[in-house]
Amino acid sequence: MGAVNGVCYGVLGDNLPSRSEVVQLLKSQGIGAMRIYYPDKEALDALRGSGIAVIIDVGDSGAVGYLASNPSAAADWVRDNVEAYWPNVIIRYITVGNQLPAGDMGLILPAMQNVHKALVSAGLSSSIKVSTAIKMDVVANTFPPSHGVFRSDVQQFMVPIARFLANTVSPLLVNVYPYVSYRDNPRDISLNYATFQPGTTVRDNDSGLTYTNLFNAMVDAVYAALEKAGTPNVRIAVSETGWPSAGGFAATVENAMNHNQGVIDNVKNGTPKRPGPLETYVFSMFNENQQTGDETARHFGLFNPDKTPVYPITPYPRPAVLQSIGVCYGMLGNDLPSRSEVVQMYKSKGINGMRIYNPDRQALDALRNSGIGLILDAGGFETVSYLAASASNAAAWVRDNVKPYYPAVNIKYIAVGNEVVGGTTESILPAMRNVNDALAAAGIGGIKVSTAVKSDVIANSYPPSAGVFSYPYMNGIAQFLASTGAPLLANVYPYFAYAGNPREISLNYATFQPGTTVRDDGNGLTYNNLFDAMVDCIYAALEKAGAGNVRVVVSESGWPSAEGFAATMDNARAYNQGLIDHVGRGTPKRPGQMEAYIFAMFNENQKTGAATERHFGLFYPNKSPVYQIAFPN
To answer: Where in this chain does the entry annotate a coiled-coil region (predicted)?
Structure first.
């Protein structure tokens, strides 16, 4: 999971801009995610095709109670408020209840379960997660952070909720307000500590961790409570945080700017207990003159209703949770840097994802606490057969290659086989099932099991809408992925398509350069690069296999820089920079952010096959760049 900074969009004002103006303002400010507090049709319509991810709240406690008591109402809600907009609107989470009091918390879990079941029936549970947003006061003993525990009177609700989140691989949404803590206890909490300013260091003697701001300490207290509830792998997304700029104690423009800029800058670092990106939403977009409560409630906005900023904020980083560029780390060279040097390179270049082709112990150790998301390949064809042979083999593999490293190593996907061919293809699905079951038995819900396929598993690749799987075994794999919420990993190489047919495919079209437009009369979509057409062909095949909601993760893509037809530095740079710049847009069939991994990190001198195979690297073994590339982070 990468970093997202979003903004909460409240509409309790009689002088606010139109929904379409607000979406344009978000885009102009580089804000890639938002939260809305009910399924606002105008806002959802304005978000179509924007690339902005959204959290949708179901509404107040009455709405939660209705969904809890009536599964058919949940199905209707999903049909009217999710299916009517997805995927043109990137719905990230559905929030079932916002800061519900203890008396209403018994409604949350049944409502969440009903909404989740409705998403499963709609084939959307892999893409859209169901959660609830809690107030910090459901956690007791917040100092030191390691003592955090769910309050005794709400444990009966929070522990089952946490288990549901663990089972569905969903985050817990938490509204975190250092302002409220500081306002209520200014004698013991310094203003600098509450607003991300230097000068205060607090050590948690029980965990040994050190804190320089209150926000991180509060988040880690919730993580401690999740651990005590038996759900240490549940991720936290901060669904609200902010500081008022007027109207009350310590509510000044300077304090609000310091806190909110600190939050924005903190998103990429995470907390001492959970380093790495932290998804965070600032409350709120506007000063809302119809907010009830004390005067400060009307002054949490980053912007005035006339769209001018209340105070200057450094532009938001673009979200990298769904928009992720990784790089494949191959090791077939006798002159490559050490594993630890390579991990440091990834971090220094802002590369937030890695793929390795076997469970390499040194690489896994080097990745601990790096925050780098990992695709971990199980191994070669023999390993696929071994994992398919028995559940005990898969359990042993998970015991040896996953449990010693996770969650310190951020393993996102296990690839059971890479471009498997021949008789071993029949082993892929049973091997995936065995590994998935072994992960479940080990209590690991945050890792998805998939396989990496070559483009030739698709027949009828032109036009993209005609795509269909070439082999029957792929239909079973696609349906398994749909049932587990896992993506299909696909190795997508416009280079090979172009090299095989340069008369019909233009170089510009293959390398993200302007000048070519191709219309698919089958779906009415227009393509200006070959990569999108190839990915959408896979989506078409998934739809025909009854798995239209399975996401595609591009697990390899690249262009060689030497030793072959069209293998030049200029072409390689144009293609790979084009891919990096493109992932935030998605494809014509699936607009929005996507996840892709460039092949490869290094030129590998022991790669076999054509000479081009040894020249796909972004870097030479001495760590100098083969050509200049700019990563988004």
So the answer is: none
CB-based contact 303:22 (threshold 8 Å): no
**Whole-model pTM?**
0.57
In a domain, 297, yes or no: yes
CA distance 285 to 245: 13
State yes or no: is 382 an active-site residue: no
CB 74 within 8 A of CB 117: yes
DSSP letter, residue 439: H
> Which residues, 6+ apart, have CB-to-CB distance to 614 below 8 Å?
563, 603, 604, 605, 607
Structure tokens at 26: 């978000």
Residue 292: how many other CB atoms lie within 10 Å? 8
Pairing between β-strand 468-469 and β-strand 525-527 as defined by DSSP bridges: unpaired
Contact (Cβ atoms closer than 8 angstroms) between residue 572 and residue 560: yes
For residues 256 and 399, membership in a common domain is answered with no
Residue burial 160-194, b: 16+ Cβ < 10 Å; e: rest: ebbbbbbebbbbbbbbbbbbbbbbeeeeebeeebb
Say if 283 falls within a structural domain. yes
CA distance 631 to 576: 10
d(CA 106, CA 87): 32
- Residue 447: which domain range? 325-619
Q: Is there a domain that residue 632 lies in?
A: no
Q: Among candidates 481, 419, 429, which has minimal Cα distance to 453?
A: 419
- Is 313 part of any domain? no
Q: What does the block give as tokens for 378? A: 């199980």
Q: Can you count the helices (H) and strands (E) in the chain?
A: 20, 24
Domain end, chosen from 269, 303, 337, is at 303
pLDDT of 243 above 60: yes
Active-site annotation holder among 83, 227, 419, 613: 419
**Beta strand pairing status for 209-211 and 202-204?**
antiparallel
Structure tokens that stand for 531 in this block: 């990569």
In the structure, what pLDDT confidence band is assigned to residue 3 with cuts at 50, 70 and 90?
very low
Catalytic residue among 240, 279, 288, 556: 556
Q: Helices 391-401 and 425-441, interaxial angle, to 10°?
A: 60
- Asked if residue 393 and residue 291 are part of one domain, the reply reads no
Residue 42 designated active-site: no
Residue with tokens 């009517």: 84
What are the pLDDT digits (tens) for 424-450?
999 999 999 999 999 988 888 779 999
538 CB-contact burial (10 Å; exposed 0-12 / middle 13-18 / buried 19+): buried
The Cα–Cα gap between 325 and 79 comes to: 32
Identity (one letter) of the amino acid at 497? A
